[in-house]
């Protein structure tokens, strides 16, 4: 079976849990920006957490299914329509062959997900179905969807067995506030900031700018100051420059000391800007959900705290799967 | 470079959140620093520690991604520190690698066209070409002399990354002979695929079309990233370069460039390449003499 794409939307791509082990040659992990929302969509349609979904950015696609299908829309709040009729989000929907899925205007956040029983069945590239557009690999022909594409859907898993619950209980759905606290572990090159610069990073408010995509999000705010120094050989002349180094996913760089950039799942793997800290793994989905204008405070936590937050998130995820009556796989 | 430069102090260890360990071998770029990075990366890779996701050697630092659910951070740090200590005691200062000839069309029309679109507000000297600017910045007579300096001596792939398969290149010459050119004042939003670029002391070849801030000198004639894996050089992997590769640029004319395009279309193009052992002490003692020895490996290929 397959989905026929009418209007592709703004930037609709195939994503899964991502591609591991090739960052050393500049191929990023990719994968759904909001992993939590994507995998709960999979849970609702009887998939494992690993199946590929369609990630919709602000403006989703109009698509028609050529066969009966079981789908769920999770992630950012948006009006979901089947043949023009409003349908609930975070709930399992049954489509008949020929049914048309479309979306209204997004009400908050940035991305929502179309999960389908059997998963989006494009070929795996380097162990993942995720789209890496810049490198033109994975996903549907290595690019975002276009009108006329026919996106293949896999056969149902477990003989088509569906979980008991038809929707994700309210308590397990993420919220999309206009203000966020994002936890970071200071480090990498934070010692290069002046005391005032570090103070600005941690005590002031930063706003997500419209320059935000799968590669990273740029923030505006008061800026930071770097300590002056004689630049090391090969580092470049600006005090925010370093000899080109690997970039941690989630790391925060501040080119020229003006606008911090958080690298996300399609990160460039390295470059010459000093990083001053890294968003903890448990808060990466939170950052992915931040729409332009979101007021953000960066809160420094220890590595121990970061690991604890990671365990808390894993527990919450497992509880959400349990609430849908499906063991997480 | 001197032999003393080969003695580096201990690396700096710091965390990139709960999934990344960053090991800064040196703040400054140097051949010994890069060699140490590659040695640590190689030994760590051979150790096959469960829970290591990615080992990314860079110019003078190393980034390791790990799964903290499998490999606790302190355990990883201890493992890398042990490797570093062992290397300091008896570092094997030789690298089994290969030398590759990379044909380049210098002063090509593709980069010239893009450069023209990014002058005022982007470039230090909007009036001239990138290569004229680079010649002047290095106190060289003209573009021709710069091009000669660029391809006469080979380069080490000191890092692969930024985007898929992009090699950072460090020329194997004494520091006072390193070509240094500032990056664009503001990054371009476009760079032709296979542009041979330069920023700071690093050369690069842009593997894909896209944004970039390095000065543009020419285009490499053959692919370095091939997701379709059509050519023989990409049979095993879609990315051609590996850290530690040695690159010898070879200037080609428009006619030679076109002949290579025909070979690529026919699927018959192969890079000229040969295995070599790269010894740090020789490279530091007499770079140009040692380079001649390395480049001899390409004769008769």
Number of strands of chain B: 12
CA gyration radius of chain B, whole angstroms: 20 Å
- Considering DSSP H and I runs of 4 or more, what fraction of the residues of chain B is helical? 25-40%
Estimated share of beta-strand residues of chain A: 25-35%
**Strand neighbour order, sheet with most strands of chain B:** 5-10-8-9-7-6-11
Spatial separation of the terminal alpha carbons of chain A? 24 Å
Greatest interface: A-B, 51 and 54 residues
Strand order of the largest sheet of chain A: 12-19-16-17-14-13-20
Secondary structure: helix percent of chain A = 10-25%
**Biggest sheet features of chain A:** 7 strands, mixed, barrel
Taking all Cα atoms into account, the compactness measure Rg of chain A is 20 Å
3D shape of chain B: globular
- The stretches of 5 or more residues of chain A where confidence is low (pLDDT under 50) are none
Q: How confident overall, as mean pLDDT of chain A?
A: 96
Oligomer: heterodimer
| Main beta sheet strand tally, sense and closure of chain B | 7 strands, mixed, barrel
Shape of chain A: elongated
Structure description:
- The complex is a heterodimer of chains A (329) and B (301).
- Chain A is an alpha+beta fold and 329 residues long.
- In chain A, 14% of the residues lie in helices and 29% in strands.
- Chain A has a 7-stranded mixed beta barrel. In chain A, strands 7-6-9-4-1-11 form a 6-stranded antiparallel beta sheet, with no helix packed on it.
- The model of chain A has no long low-confidence stretch (mean pLDDT 96).
- Chain B is an alpha+beta fold and 301 residues long.
- In chain B, 30% of the residues lie in helices and 25% in strands.
- Chain B has 8 helices and 12 strands.
- Chain B has a 7-stranded mixed beta barrel. Chain B has a 4-stranded antiparallel beta sheet with strand order 1-2-4-3, covered by helices on one side.
- In chain B, helix 1 (31-47) crosses helix 2 (73-89) and helix 4 crosses helix 5.
- The radius of gyration of chain B is 20 Å and the shape is globular.
- The model of chain B is unreliable at 1-5 (pLDDT under 50).
- At the A-B interface, strand 15, strand 18, strand 19 and helix 4 of A face strand 1, strand 2, strand 3 and strand 4 of B.
């Amino acid at each position: 079976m397959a989905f026929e794409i009418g209007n592709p939307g703004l930037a609709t791509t195939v994503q899964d849990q991502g591609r591991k082990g090739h960052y050393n040659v500049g191929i990023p992990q990719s994968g759904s920006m909001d992993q939590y929302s994507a995998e709960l969509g999979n849970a609702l349609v009887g998939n494992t957490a690993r199946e590929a979904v369609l990630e919709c950015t602000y403006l989703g696609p109009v698509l028609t299914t050529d066969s009966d299908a079981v789908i769920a829309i999770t992630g950012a709040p948006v009006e979901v329509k089947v043949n023009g009729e409003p349908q609930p989000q975070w709930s399992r929907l049954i489509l008949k062959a020929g049914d048309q899925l479309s979306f209204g205007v997004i009400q908050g956040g940035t991305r929502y997900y179309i999960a389908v029983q059997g998963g989006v069945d494009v070929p795996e590239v380097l162990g993942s179905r995720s789209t890496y557009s810049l490198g033109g690999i994975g996903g549907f022909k290595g690019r975002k969807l276009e009108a006329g594409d026919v996106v293949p859907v896999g056969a149902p898993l477990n003989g088509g067995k569906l979980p008991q619950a038809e929707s994700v209980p309210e308590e397990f759905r993420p919220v999309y506030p206009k203000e966020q606290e994002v936890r970071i572990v200071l480090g990498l090159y934070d010692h290069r900031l002046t005391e005032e610069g570090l103070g600005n990073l941690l005590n002031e408010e930063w706003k997500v700018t419209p320059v935000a995509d799968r590669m990273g999000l740029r923030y505006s705010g008061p800026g930071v100051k770097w300590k002056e120094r004689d630049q090391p050989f090969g580092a470049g002349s600006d005090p925010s420059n370093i000899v080109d180094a690997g970039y941690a996913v989630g790391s925060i760089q501040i080119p020229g000391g003006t606008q911090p950039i958080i690298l996300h799942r399609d990160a460039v793997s390295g470059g010459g800007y000093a990083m001053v800290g890294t968003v903890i793994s448990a808060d990466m989905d939170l950052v992915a959900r931040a729409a332009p204008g979101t007021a953000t405070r960066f809160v420094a936590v220890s590595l121990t705290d970061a690991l604890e937050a990671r365990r808390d998130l894993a527990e919450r995820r497992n509880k959400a799967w349990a609430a849908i009556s499906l063991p997480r796989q | 470079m001197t032999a003393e430069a080969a003695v580096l102090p201990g690396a700096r260890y710091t965390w990139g959140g709960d999934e990344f360990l960053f090991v800064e071998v040196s703040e400054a770029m140097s051949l010994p620093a890069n060699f140490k990075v590659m040695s640590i990366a190689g030994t760590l890779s051979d150790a096959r520690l469960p829970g290591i996701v990615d080992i990314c050697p860079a110019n003078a630092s190393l980034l390791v991604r790990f799964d903290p659910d499998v490999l606790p951070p302190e355990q990883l740090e201890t493992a890398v520190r042990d490797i570093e200590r062992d290397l300091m005691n008896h570092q094997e200062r030789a690298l089994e690698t290969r030398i590759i000839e990379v044909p380049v069309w210098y002063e090509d029309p593709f980069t010239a066209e893009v450069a023209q679109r990014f002058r005022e507000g982007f470039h230090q000297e909007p009036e001239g070409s990138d290569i004229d600017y680079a010649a002047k910045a290095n106190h060289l007579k003209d573009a021709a002399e710069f091009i000669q300096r660029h391809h006469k001596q080979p380069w080490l792939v000191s890092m692969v990354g930024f985007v898929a398969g992009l090699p950072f290149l460090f020329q194997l010459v004494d520091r006072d002979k390193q070509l240094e050119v500032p990056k664009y004042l503001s990054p371009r939003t476009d760079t032709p695929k296979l542009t041979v670029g330069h920023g700071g002391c690093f050369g690069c070849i842009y593997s894909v079309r896209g944004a970039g801030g390095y000065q543009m000198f020419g285009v490499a004639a053959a692919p370095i990233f091939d997701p379709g894996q059509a050519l023989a050089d990409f049979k095993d992997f879609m990315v051609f370069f590996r850290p530690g590769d040695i690159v010898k640029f070879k200037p080609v004319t428009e006619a030679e460039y076109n002949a290579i395009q025909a070979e690529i279309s026919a699927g018959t193009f192969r890079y000229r390449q040969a295995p070599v052992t790269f010894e740090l002490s020789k490279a530091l003692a007499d770079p140009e003499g040692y380079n001649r020895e390395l480049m001899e490996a390409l004769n008769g290929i």
